[in-house]
Design brief:
126 residues, mainly alpha, Four Helix Bundle (Hemerythrin (Met), subunit A), two-stranded antiparallel ribbon, zinc-finger
Length: 126
């Protein structure tokens, strides 16, 4: 892989990382409990109490929390993949298929910058 392409992909991955961090910050906070270091805890929205449910969480709050749980997990997985791809650039292993060891095509990497398998190997697992 040429250095110009790697620099372009690194820039793209850094931009994705920044955007993912903003999205994660919107739906979660850093988990400060006895959990996995660096993990995120979904935010529980508080829209205020209404007269009928003064001490209870509203159904809307619960629904939005469940959406935050799902989004936190999905975004966290995406962030992990981006961080691994950035590390692979540093290690000199970026763009090498984890299954067959062949080079992943530039077109695939432009479409999915954190891809770890070539198209052939990805299709063989579907």
């Amino acid at each position: 892989m040429d250095q110009k392409f790697l620099a372009e992909m690194k820039e793209q991955l850094l931009q994705e990382q920044k955007e993912l961090q903003q999205e994660l910050d919107a739906v979660s906070v850093k988990d400060v409990g006895d959990h996995v270091p660096g993990s995120r805890a979904p935010k529980f929205p508080n829209y205020g109490n209404d007269a009928l449910n003064a001490d209870d969480d509203s159904p809307i709050e619960v629904t939005d929390f469940m959406e935050n749980v799902s989004a936190t997990g999905h975004l966290g997985d995406e962030m992990s993949a981006v961080q691994k791809a950035l590390q692979a650039i540093t290690n000199g292993t970026y763009g090498i298929c984890k299954e067959c060891g062949k080079e992943i095509g530039e077109e695939r990497l432009r479409a999915n910058s954190s891809a770890i398998t070539c198209i052939a190997c990805a299709q063989s697992h579907q």
